[in-house]
Amino acid sequence: MKNEATGFARLIAASGYSLKGLRNTYATEGAFRQEVWLAAVLLPLALFVGDNALEVAMLTSSVLLLLVVELLNTAIEKVVDRIGDGYHELSGAAKDAGSAAVLLALIILFTVWLCVLLQGDIAAINL
């Protein structure tokens, strides 16, 4: 189904599709639900933890990156599942790569938050 709208109408339609994707993923993916609830805690907390705009941007970006990667991983999984139920080596590799991307996004999130939270302690180690 191709969207024939242009200009502002296209923007409105695209926003609707985006919200539909978020709702569907939240409804069907347990990991995404957990990450959304984690984001609901960490995003406001970033405003208090960050000492400046750059730190707040890093903290919030790491959380949003996790959600983006989880959405892409879900998209990969759904497309692979649509192709067929049987196991195929390439299908497994695609799903594993998506899962690895989520793991790396989690590591980025953890590292950014840890560095910001322990900033003073890390600076003391470098002395």
Outline the structure in words.
This protein has 127 residues and is an all-alpha fold. The chain has a single domain, classed as Orthogonal Bundle (Helix Hairpins). It is 87% helix and 0% strand. The protein has five helices and no strands. It has helices spanning 7-28, 30-49, 53-83, 89-117, 119-126. Helix 1 (7-28) crosses helix 2 (30-49). The longest helix is centred in the middle third of the chain and has 31 residues, at 53-83. The chain is globular and about 55 Å long. The mean pLDDT is 92.
SSE order in H/E notation? HHHHH
Q: What amount of the residues lies in strands?
A: under 5%
Low-pLDDT runs of 5+ residues are: none
Query: What is the count of structural domains?
Result: 1
CATH architecture: Orthogonal Bundle
Write the layout of secondary structure elements.
Blueprint: H1 7-28, H2 30-49, H3 53-83, H4 89-117, H5 119-126
Helix pairs in contact: 1-2, 2-3, 3-4
